[in-house]
Amino acid sequence: MKFKAFLTEHGVSLLERRFLPALDKMGKICHLFLTRDHAIFLHNLLNGDGVQCIAQFRKEALFDDYRISSQNEDRIAFAIDVSLLLRAVRSSVSICTEFGNGPSANRLQIKLVKKLPPNCTQPMPFLTFETKGYKSAVIQDVPISKPLSRTQVLELQTALDIAQDLPQTLVQVPDLNQLQNFVERMKHVGDLLNVSISKYGDLHVQISTTLITLGAEFCKLLVIGEQAEAPSEDRNLSAQSRSERAISRGDAQSVQVSVKHFSRSLQCHLAKPDCAFYGIALQGFLYLTQGQAES
């Protein structure tokens, strides 16, 4: 199997300043799934517990001169340490900025290689960054796992397809920072958070203990998918009562999640999305999807 490409200036900016810092907050290890048309970062997708994260890019959004080949329909996947990947990208940017000049300036090549590390008898796989300047080149090797087998890639692709099955109703969250600040305060109250989302455009989050109930409601949010008109007789009810009545009518869904996991999912604001939507999938998962306008 072979993979080689040049990261564009826009691709470097997306990874270094936005998406890799956000992925680094999700967890130490992620899978990088490369296909003929996409580069996809996948966190925790093969594990049913905890926060799952997907960042999918068309190859043109990150690379030019993109070349990939494998006996598995030109699909390659492997596990990689996000912090090491981020460090390599940042270091390459620094080198390009300091020494880049001439017709070859700012050419950052990325490729899969096998090398024999010191004190080892077997070659190991690496994702290599080569920063080419006018008179010199700097090479950085990021260790990766053994590439996934055909069966493992199929398992990963199946999990990706399931995860990308959008909920029937999505509501837009206008300010992830505001929601995150509220959830941070909830951490000191309890461990489990009740989240309900209605077809009216309401997002209701609440945490309860024997001593206290703390909640917040975001109303009249933009809705994508199945929508409904809120009954006029519910207007004077409390947020909790409106949410319960909407669930009983089938106009809302509710799910209970870990406050810790919910807070971690909100770290996606580091990617500076143009829009973010919450929904509840049929499998009972709380779903956060964010969009980035193409430049």
Please summarize what this structure is.
The protein is an alpha+beta fold and 295 residues long.
Topology:
Elements (H helix, E strand, L loop, with lengths): L1 E6 L1 H18 L2 E6 L3 E6 L9 E6 H4 E7 L6 E6 H18 L7 E9 L8 E9 L4 E7 L6 H14 L5 E4 L3 H11 L5 E7 L4 E6 L4 E6 L4 E3 L13 H10 L3 E7 H7 L9 E6 L5 E6 L4
Antiparallel strand pairs: 1-5, 1-7, 2-3, 2-6, 3-4, 7-8, 8-9, 10-14, 10-16, 11-12, 11-15, 12-13, 16-17
Helix pairs in contact: 1-3
Protein name: Checkpoint protein
Organism: Herrania umbratica
Keywords: Nucleus
Radius of gyration: 22 Å
Low confidence ranges: none
β-strand percent reads: 35-45%
Biggest sheet overview:
5 strands, antiparallel
Question: From the 3D coordinates, which CATH architecture of the largest domain would you assign?
Answer: Box
Principal-axis shape equals: elongated
The CATH top-level class label of the largest domain: Alpha Beta
Question: What pattern of helices and strands is seen along the backbone?
Answer: EHEEEHEEHEEEHEHEEEEHEHEE
Proportion in helices: 25-40%
- Indicate the mean pLDDT: 87
Count up the helices: 7
Q: CATH fold name of the largest domain, please?
A: Proliferating Cell Nuclear Antigen
- Tally the beta strands: 17
Total count of domains: 2
Please report the distance between the alpha carbons of the first and last residues. Answer: 31 Å
Strands of the biggest beta sheet: in what spatial order?
A: 5-1-7-8-9
Q: Kindly name the structural category.
A: alpha+beta
